[in-house]
Amino acid sequence: MKEILDRITPKYDLQDVSIKDDLQAYVVVEKKLAIDMVTYMRDYEGFSHFVLMSCVDWIEDNKLQLLYLLNNPEKKCVIGIKVFIDRENPSMQSAHHLWKQIWTYQRELREAFGIDFPGSPRIEENFVLEGWTDKPHMLRDFDTNKYAEETYFPRTGRSTNDPATYMRQKLYPNQPVTAKKNKDDE
Amino acid sequence: MSKIFDFKPDRSKYPAKKADGTLDVDLRSQKYVKLWLGPNHPGVTGNMAVELTLAGDEIVEAKTHVGYLHRGFEKLIERRLYVQGFPTSIRMCVAEPDTNEYLIARSTEVLSGYDKDIPEMAQWLRMLSLEMARLQGLLRGVPGQAGTFSLGIGVQWGVYLRDLILDRFEELTGARVYHMYIIPGGVRGLLPDGFKKRMEENLKEIDNFIIRIRQLMFDNAIFKKRSVGIGVIPKEWVDLYGIVGTNARACGVKRDVRKDNPYLMYEQLDFDPPTATEGDIYARSWVRWQELIQTVDLIRQIMAKMPEKGDIRAKMPNVLHWRIPKGETYNKLESGRGEYGMYYVTDGSDKPRRVNLRGPSYTHAIALLEKMLIGTNIADVHATMVSLQTCPPEIER
Amino acid sequence: MSELDINDKVKEMLEKSAENAGSKNSEKTFVHPEDEEREVIAPDGSIIKVNPIYDYFSGKKPTEEKPSNGVVEKFLNWARSESIWVLGFGTGCGSIEIPPLMTPRFDAFRFGIQMRPTPRQSNAFIISGYLSVKTLKRVIRSYEQMPSPKYVLALGSCTINGGMYYDSYSTINRLDKYLPVDVYIAGCMPRPEALLAGFMKLKELIKEGKGEKANEYARNFDEYKANQKKIIKDWNMPDYNW
């Protein structure tokens, strides 16, 4: 893994290389070089098995992180090629010509995150949802709980407990409940 | 014989293609029929649909439609604590739920740095649970292939034997289908008294079934005529389409995560994943049948080599206040259908940032199935679909 | 209307729907060219008027069927309760417990329960767990195709109050807002024994003459349809050309 990374780091000017263990590494590459690098890894470094294409929404940085995960069946190692793209009108070069299953991933990402892949086949078709009018459903600022409460009919009488408070009351009933609450528990 | 009935007309010329590469199919010309297979169809594997365009009874275009089982797991897990996301995530694939348990437990352990602390006994028990899950999946899957050719008796035997394995699961974990046995840090409990003896009895019954299913499927003229040479996957497609698991092994590419990237205690077990070279439906069923034998053998090996007693839980932080530092990881295992992986991202809070599941059916059921169905007969659609072991819930999550 | 005119009309509709898709700011409408009201020529030359949206909606109100008198109705109810034919539509993960139910170990056949491949032959519908909106549309259509009297068994906690998917954007919370439910079978997932108990309960209800939920659906048709229309926005259905 390390020798492969040593080879490609100067070639693609990799900014952030993190090696998890001998068999797994993640690199960050510029947007315009990404597809080029994926192609290079497939053709010259033996990463011939495409594992996964995914997207993570880093809303605090106003970025979407695309991930191309490739597997090398010979050396049994996995490399994740990460690309950061803008959150406003996200768009990315299509890679559907490299592997036959990529257009499915791109169709899913188009629906879930609103990322456009110009030229990808059947990109406009629905993937899992039908008649969806709200914003793309996997974005962090889409509140699924609120949507469900407004759209479907929640059954009255259903109660929810904060697990931490509930367990504290159950285990230490005599102790007064302090209002110690983590901010991101909400 | 004169050429009155030409069973194999040359269909390469039509339908013609439009400029943008799509097929020029005029449905009003009465030459083509549009047929929807599913979602309400007993032969489809789960709740999905295939939109077929037919010329005669030959398929000229196929489109897979999924989303009927979409629950938005990946969104829901982002809103739950690590331990709350656990019972949610295991419902992502109903055919082999234990694989999800292992992946999410493993991902959280790796990211929080506890993956080296898992006691040996817990690892053996995890492996036992995973192999039992594979066995119950195969007991549905292997005769299921015969079921597509109306050899329904195999399904009856298989479902009965699967129930016996589910009984053992119930003994071990308390539940039939969704077990929640592999939890972060270890497993929930030790083997009950007499478990090995009862398991051995069940395995003996399955040994008997293995012989009978061979007579039903592989020594059977009906099965051979319907499966040999149909639904062929060429070897070159394996990387091109991302084919994994038994489907890849049936066309001669030996891919098995248990051998390639050994996890748990698989290095200590003696096994060799079965392969075939033909890549047709028959070869895939054959490989799966061999794997059934192998899984039974593996369970026997695990039960023999496993220590009697030991720690089953590592010391983990309080799950209610569990925070995992920022990081990402991809973990995979070999499920009954192939490489099954999970990409897990944390951001330092008490909830995961992103969980993405990679199911083998994602490629098998969409890109590959659509390609394989073109040019086949409509009667072979179910057989092809079942032989790929497609499982819709892991496509749409 | 000649074939040429129809082609022109379809082209017009395509343009119209392209315009609709373009205006994203306004409320998105799902108008498909094949959903427009039109006339089709049957093979024998006669002209048939079709209105796909109306048909898919099942816009026509189902008729309420009054029960027969005394002994006749009792006899019919007995017959109905002993021949529960279930539609083979696995809508969720609960459908994995259907094969054990139907095979020798639990053997539901001995109670006159069997699976049928088409809604036209069945009178019971097992909603096996969570229902995404996309499936709900198919479920409603299948339900409306089933001959009356018909019964609905709802499996699992997901159909009762959403279960663990209570906050999912894709699955419904309460099934009884969209379809009348006869028997709920609780659990995640319910065991085959629980399913058998549910069927026994359904038999009791039918014998007592309480299995009249199809009539309830007809009575409250507008209310059910309003709820369904609230969440299903795209009513296009698979198009057949025969």
Describe this structure in words.
The complex is a heterotrimer of chains A (186), B (397) and C (242). Chain A is of the alpha+beta class and 186 residues long. Chain A has a single domain (2-156), classed as NADH:ubiquinone oxidoreductase Nqo5 subunit (Beta Polymerase, domain 2, 2-Layer Sandwich), CATH 3.30.460.80. In chain A, 27% of the residues lie in helices and 22% in strands. Chain A contains five helices and five strands, in the order H-E-E-H-E-E-E-H-H-H. In chain A, strands 1-2-5-4-3 form a five-stranded mixed sheet, covered by helices on one side. In chain A, a hairpin with a 4-residue loop joins strand 3 and strand 4. By secondary structure, chain B is α+β, with helices and mostly antiparallel strands. Chain B has 14 helices and eight strands. Helices cover 43% and strands 12% of the residues of chain B. In chain B, helix 4 packs antiparallel against helix 11 and helix 6 packs antiparallel against helix 11. Chain B is globular and about 75 Å long. In chain C, 40% of the residues lie in helices and 12% in strands. Classes of the chains: A alpha+beta (186), B alpha+beta (397), C alpha/beta (242). Chains in contact: A-B, A-C, B-C.
Mean pLDDT of chain A: 83
Query: What does the overall shape of chain A look like?
Result: globular
Rg of chain C is: 21 Å
Task: Let me know the number of strands of chain C.
Answer: 7
Termini gap of chain A: 40 Å
State the distance separating the first and last CA atoms of chain C.
Answer: 19 Å
- Count of alpha and pi helical runs of chain C: 9
**Uncertain regions of chain C: pLDDT < 50 for 5+ in a row?**
20-26
> What's the CATH class of chain A, please?
Alpha Beta
Number of separate structural domains of chain C? 2
Structural class of chain A: alpha+beta
In terms of topology, how is this protein built?
The complex is a heterotrimer of chains A (186), B (397) and C (242).
Chain A: H1 2-12, E1 16-21, E2 24-28, H2 34-44, E3 49-58, E4 63-72, E5 77-86, H3 102-113, H4 144-151, H5 163-171
Parallel strand pairs in A: 2-5
Antiparallel strand pairs in A: 1-2, 3-4, 4-5
Chain B: E1 33-37, E2 49-55, E3 58-65, H1 73-78, H2 85-89, H3 97-112, H4 120-148, H5 153-173, E4 182-183, E5 186-187, H6 195-217, H7 221-227, H8 237-241, H9 245-249, H10 257-260, H11 281-305, E6 327-335, E7 338-346, E8 352-358, H12 361-373, H13 381-387, H14 393-396
Antiparallel strand pairs in B: 1-2, 2-3, 4-5, 6-7, 7-8
Helix pairs in contact in B: 3-4, 4-5, 4-11, 4-13, 5-6, 6-11
Chain C: H1 3-22, E1 38-41, E2 47-50, H2 52-57, H3 70-81, E3 84-87, H4 98-102, E4 113-116, E5 124-128, H5 133-145, E6 151-155, H6 156-161, E7 183-185, H7 192-207, H8 213-219, H9 221-231
